Amino acid sequence: MEEGAPRDRPGEFALIARYFRPLADGAAGAFALTDDAALYKPRAGEELVITADLLAEGVHFLPDDPPESIARKALRVNLSDLAAKGADPVGYLLALALPKDWTEPWLRKFAAGLRGDQKRYGITLIGGDTSRAADRLTIVITAVGSVSRGKMVRRRGARPGDALFVSGTIGDGALGLRLRLGSIDGGPAGANAKHLLDRYLHPQPRTALAPVLRQFATSALDVSDGLVGDLAHICEVSEVGASIDLESIPLSKGARALLATDPSALSTILTGGDDYEVLATVPARKAAAFTAAAAVGGVSVTRIGEMTRGRGAPVVLDRDGRRVELAGLSFDHFRSG
Length: 337
Hints:
Elements: H1 12-20, E1 46-56, H2 67-84, E2 88-98, H3 104-121, E3 124-132, E4 138-148, E5 163-167, H4 172-181, H5 193-201, H6 210-216, E6 219-223, H7 227-238, E7 241-245, H8 253-261, H9 264-271, E8 277-282, H10 287-296, E9 301-308, E10 315-317
Parallel strand pairs: 2-3, 7-10
Antiparallel strand pairs: 1-4, 2-4, 5-8, 5-9, 6-8, 7-9
Helix pairs in contact: 2-3, 4-5, 6-10
């Protein structure tokens, strides 16, 4: 937060009216944030998909991150969940707990970050709550999306023989965080270090992939806690196994540069999280059509493995077919540092 919080800051209700009511413009059921709840009536034949993410200062973002970036990340991680379920965004609720040193300039920039992404992704604020935080800034966003009845793409549904795909590149967000914290030398990444830092601050939800997933995917989720660990969720509920080809995992130039000089980058890439890319399974016979349809939507997808018979954790195989040993499968809020 910025220093020098003025004593004449607006109260809770004036704060809502000044900074958040304008974000609800155009949402009839939001009632300009003047009621206790929002009203939304799905169109005939549609169902709602609802997801929520909590972001805590010091865990999901750093205290000196720009307020616009914090706002974008909070909204985008939810949009990423909706995209992976094949849902189109409808609206969102914002619960915001502000620390005692919050300032109007900070909040103004935070609201501007939300406003820009609302326009970019076609979603509107429809309600929420504000409160004083006991300690650090905490943000909870609940996002609502819609799909045609029975078309939500679940984690359950993967079958042995399905091709395993991931969108974009993997490892950038987690490596970007390590660069911020100084736990990895960013020198080898050169100018590409900026890309890694940006991917940590600004996830890129693959909303354009949602209709393609509805058409082709047997299961999907977004990679938030680590590629291998999140794939394990699909394996568990689908009662299948999975094999990942290490050489096929798509990496950015910056990630490749760090991996070439620091072996610890491999574990970060495979298990670090903060990717917010879509991991999906597709029938092998439809793999080419899935890739082509994703490209039409402007999203690159890469085939990185396949689903296998038998239950168990995913295995990662190197170029010689040897299993890559990992200390853990993913980030865990209650076990990870």
